[in-house]
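Data availability (excerpt). The following record was deposited with the supplementary files.
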Amino acid sequence: MALSGALTAVALVGGTAVAVGQAASEVEQPLVNVAAAGASGADDRTPTPLPKKPKPSATPKTTTTAPPAPRPTVSRRSSSGRLGPWENLSRRISSVAKIRATVRGDGVFMFGDSIAVQDGPALEQLVAAQTGTPVAVHDWSGQPASAGVDALADWSRKYGLPDRIVMAVGTNDIFAPAAFATEVEQAMKIAGPKRTVYWVNVHANRWGLSTAVQSADRANSALINKALDQAAARHPNLRVVRWSEFLSARSGQVTKYLRDGIHTTQPTGQRARNALIAQALGSAE
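Predicted structure:
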């Protein structure tokens, strides 16, 4: 999220990272896992533009899945600022073999931002242990909801979808909150009425920035969460995972769960957020 991540939502904000691109093939490997070079963690606040990478002399013969080309980032500015380039930030994307196994086993698809890049491995283990089914992930630091929805559409076309889908994107939409509702509707259209979508709502309040920006972050988070609640009222198969409410109920202890106003602390915040998502999935069992 620029809170993103990663699963955005809150899913977030500021680190520069160089990603290593690879071409696609259907060779079984655990993940495309491109780490942020020189960064202490996924952070998509307003990424700094990266230098252009030299073109490879030859296409590698064996790699993991190539992510779909993301929709170009629309240059919009809100009172929270502007979402900068995120396409080369850290990401974790399951292999084709894992995606197909998840569809065959009616497991769980997860789409997230930088929070998910950080917290996703532990969440996958938790959900797999709880449900006994495979999990496939598409977690990309800095991606807004539009990119997560594009990835959902791409996987739907290529592989089909399982009955449960987790969307942990939205935090990076504090930079363009008016566009968020359209992306939720598109996701629900792709999923269809018989699948359940679990969407993690958003908490953004970047402590390192000015009080005006912090106020804007809170207001834009509220707009995103309102749009999500309105969509849930229209779609009975949309379940909101209430991370924002969890934190609001612990207003005096937020620093216990967040390290910068967006990303979770480890292990306390990570465990709390992952538990909310796993509980939501478990309630449908």
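Summary of structural features: The chain has one domain: 31-48+74-283.
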